């Protein structure tokens, strides 16, 4: 998977500078999904509290799902309060910029799988009634059930970058490198769908 990390990093920094006035040292991308407004607000509140309490200067880039109109999500920026946050266009989305991030936050976006392959730490947002891809079960993501979990995970990434790296065995358990990667990904997605998981991206 060939990507230009520096270009995507610059894009994220410019996006935050344009909205928040400055580019934080650390950047997390939230792979937003087409949930109800209240559900997204609940997730935003947890993320905002976690970002505030995390060690390091963190900023958040809200990346809409292709099915979402970024213009209708401006309320999420206000919900973040004093957190450095910006909203990017849905045509870019998480897939178009995650390689430049220090962390990807998602519940069940398949961008989480791409982040694993790119060695970008994944925080799996597992709030009550929220289904995930269960990447954390494969030790390929950090399971976050609260703002405290978010803060602790981001702090680990800031202070010990290697702590967010996914073990090779975990990566191979999700997407094998022997030519069966498509089958491996399809198997995970199929099992998630059979459990009633709503997948996006």
Description of the structure:
- The structure is a single chain.
- Helix 4 links the parallel strand 4 (103-106) and strand 5.
- This protein has helices at 5-20, 37-53, 74-79, 111-117, 147-159, 168-174, 181-194; strands at 26-31, 58-63, 84-87, 103-106, 122-125, 142-144.
- Residues 192-201 have low confidence and may be disordered.
- Helix 2 (37-53) packs across helix 5.
- The protein is α/β, with parallel strands linked by helices and 201 residues long.
- A 6-stranded parallel beta sheet has the order 3-2-1-4-5-6, with helices on both faces.
- It is built from 7 helices and 6 strands, in the order αβαβαββαββααα.
Please outline the helices and strands.
Blueprint lengths: L4 H16 L5 E6 L5 H17 L4 E6 L10 H6 L4 E4 L15 E4 L4 H7 L4 E4 L16 E3 L2 H13 L8 H7 L6 H14 L7
Helix pairs in contact: 2-5
């Amino acid at each position: 998977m060939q990507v230009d990390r520096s270009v995507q990093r610059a894009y994220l920094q410019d996006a935050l500078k344009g909205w928040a006035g400055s580019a934080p040292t650390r950047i997390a991308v939230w792979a937003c999904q087409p949930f109800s407004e209240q559900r997204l607000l609940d997730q935003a509140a947890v993320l905002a509290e976690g970002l505030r309490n995390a060690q390091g200067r963190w900023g958040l880039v809200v990346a809409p799902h292709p099915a979402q109109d970024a213009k209708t999500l401006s309320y999420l920026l206000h919900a973040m309060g004093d957190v450095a946050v910006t909203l990017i266009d849905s045509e870019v989305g998480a897939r178009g910029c995650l390689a430049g991030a220090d962390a990807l936050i998602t519940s069940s976006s398949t961008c989480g799988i791409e982040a694993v392959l790119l060695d970008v730490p994944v925080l799996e947002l597992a709030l009550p009634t929220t289904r995930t891809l269960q990447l954390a079960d494969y030790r390929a993501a950090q399971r976050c059930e609260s703002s405290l979990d978010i803060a602790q995970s981001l702090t680990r990434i800031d202070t010990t970058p290697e702590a967010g790296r996914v073990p090779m065995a975990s990566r191979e358990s999700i997407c094998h490198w022997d030519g069966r990667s498509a089958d491996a990904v399809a198997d995970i997605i199929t099992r998630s769908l059979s459990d009633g998981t709503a997948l996006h991206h």
